[in-house]
Design brief:
disordered N terminus, 534 residues
Amino acid sequence: QQSTLHTSQPQQFSTQRLRHHKAILMDHRTMKTNCKATIRGGLPACCIAAMLLMHTSPPFAAAADVSEQQPFLGRYEPDTNVDDVAALDLDQRSIVARLASGTFTGLREAEAVYSKGRFSTDSESSRTIQSLSTRAEEELDVSSTYQTFVKYYGNPDYADQWIQASFDGTSTSLDNGNADFSNFGLEGRVAAIRWGTALLNVWMHVVGCLEKAATNCLTSADNEEEVADWDTAVAFYTGSEARADGNGGHFIYTLAQVECEKFGTCKKGDMAPINIDIFDLFNDGKAHLQQGNCDDVAEKASEIKALVTVPLIQGAMRAMYALDVSGDYQETTQGQGAAFAAAILPLVDECNEGNANIIHNDLAPGKTLGGSFEVIKAAFERSYDCLGITCNDVGGIINLRGNGYLTGAEACDNAQPVESDTDYDDQFDNDNYVSSPSKPQSSPSKPQQSDSSNGSGGGDGMNAAIAALLSGLVFGIFGLVGGAAITLAYMSKKNKKDEKEFVTSSDPKDVADRNIWAEDFKESKIDVDDKSFS
């Protein structure tokens, strides 16, 4: 019956679509169960993440009939049916739904989805997020970027080894860029998995399929298979649930939308400039393929590769800022930083080995607490030219007033942020955001004055005054205790961290921005879940 809500031809309601509906409903039940258990277990952040995924993914919205190939975001119309590829983003969503429980049971359930899949139901390919890595040597052998990663890590299934070590809490055994997840508890491992699956496994197939199409174009008779590879890359980039404004979605397109707002390169709700450029290049590249202009195809693939590195750099820098400047030592933040770094290290290493070593030494599991945002930022910026991107592409970390950058996190070359018309103080008050429990006010609300016309006697006024006095005293004590705790935490941070040259501004506005931004980053895993890119 539900099929009639989403197709004008319910008689075409396929067996595959029925499987999709059933699996989606099971995911929602899982998220609801995890949310209830999470509340009892005292982990509201994971609960919120699950609710957001449920909220942004209506139960029947993603199960499009496989016989009807729709344009991606109204900007790219594939010539081949790649619905099954796009549906793999639902596996990503399913993994995150299970990780959201914050339990070892949820971890193992997520591992089962990672290895066995749920939504990409092509029986011939049996494609799973894990298989994107374990089959990469066969499928992406002609991709120069894939070979760069294999050369750096020393193993063709480097991504799967990294993710499996995250699941198991062990260390990788790679030639470079090793990660020891025994340094993390469950929280850090969960964060590494939920980001690493998309950044390591999926990202490579976006670039790899484009380069495969460009390379094979030189020897193909009609480029029919190469057009199919190109369409596949677009499906991996976008997924099945992405929307133009960045709400919904689980793959790289949505990540680019999230980071665009955070780095001041687009207004909230607008399509990121790099996404606009990428889709233009997708269309140009396919046109050249169909015309047999192989050199032009290779050029477009190279330009897309450069642009899709931008959100990887932004995510790594934003995590390091939270850890170093804002003092956010959550394992969630550390896990995010480790995943973003792992996804970009081989590309930076190809440009300059020293810069890659700096990034790895500051963002690998167990090393982030001694890292330096200033050093990481400089290492990335030295790599921009080699990576084919600019300071304007990356931007800087925006303040929450939306009118400038945070001190020390400005874009290079004096690049300026896009002027925002959004009140950033209320940026999360929308249908896609579930806020965390409100903080206690630093000072109590002013008590309402007694209205003499309401018939209350002088005794009521005295009682109100006494109550107000007691409330002020209680809140004052809490304020003193809180202030002392913050002071001790700050002193501990200063004692633990090496002295750095990076000195942040003491301007009250800048200090306020940093504090607000720190709170924002603590919820960034939720903000990203808000966009369904967890």
